[in-house]
From TrEMBL:
GO MF annotation, one: ATP hydrolysis activity
PANTHER family to which the protein is assigned, alphabetical: ABC TRANSPORTER I FAMILY MEMBER 1 (PTHR43499:SF1)
GO biological process: cytochrome complex assembly
Entry keyword Protease: no
Pfam families: ABC_tran (PF00005)
Protein name listed in UniProt: Cytochrome c biogenesis protein CcmA
Keyword Thylakoid: no
Annotated ranges, domain ABC transporter: 3-214
Keywords: ATP-binding, Cytochrome c-type biogenesis, Membrane, Nucleotide-binding, Translocase, Transport
Organism of origin: Rhizobium grahamii CCGE 502
Protein family: Belongs to the ABC transporter superfamily.
Classification of source organism: Bacteria, Pseudomonadati, Pseudomonadota, Alphaproteobacteria, Hyphomicrobiales
Amino acid sequence: MHLEAANLAARRGEDLIFEGLSFGLEAGQALVLTGKNGSGKSTLLRVVAGLLRQERGTVSFTDSHGDTHKRVGEISHYLGHRNAMKSELTVAENLEFWRRFLGQMHGPSVSIDEAAAAVGLEGITHLPFGYLSAGQQRRFAFAKLLIAYRPVWILDEPTAALDTSGDRLFAELIEAHRRNGGIVLAATHQPLGLEGVQELRMTGFAHAGSGVWA
Ligand SMILES: Nc1ncnc2c1ncn2[C@@H]1O[C@H](COP(=O)(O)OP(=O)(O)OP(=O)(O)O)[C@@H](O)[C@H]1O
């Protein structure tokens, strides 16, 4: 399994945000994007997820059978700044919608109740999503990743609005995904507490450098 980005460039409006950006991730590996506000982290994640068209370059995913997919969004979960849930539907209705919409790929997935328990919120899936606190909403947005398997997780500020126990819990769920051979690409302003991840420091306006997470 392999996620490959080669020579990517992306533009927002008139500005070239980055160019010549390449990385490769094998099963179990994670890449964390860091950098100041506006440096292009969300832009890169959206390009990889297929939500934004790149100016140049390619993104591809090769599965465990050696088949290459150009539409990485189809084999990915994308957790953006917004939670992608309807406020007026219950948590269970929202997650059921996503389960049906996403369909099942071969790989580990759990029931809605199990996913709620995994994010520490069992027993409240009957509530409208809009009734929940910001942290509870973020936890259920993350539960979406557990109910339908996708090998690649693309996460934009996944721990925004979370308390300390939520931070730890998300780190454990991400690590479990990696242990199962999953690939993670995440943007963050704070360390996610993940083991052995690579870091890509985004600098914006076509200057990006890479290093190793300290
Ligand atoms: N729709 C848009 N049209 C024009 N410019 C945009 C658009 N969206 C983002 N930008 C610009 O692209 C640049 C990169 O934005 P991006 O959201 O990728 O940054 P980021 O590193 O994720 O920031 P943050 O840490 O604040 O989330 C910024 O200068 C931003 O103003």
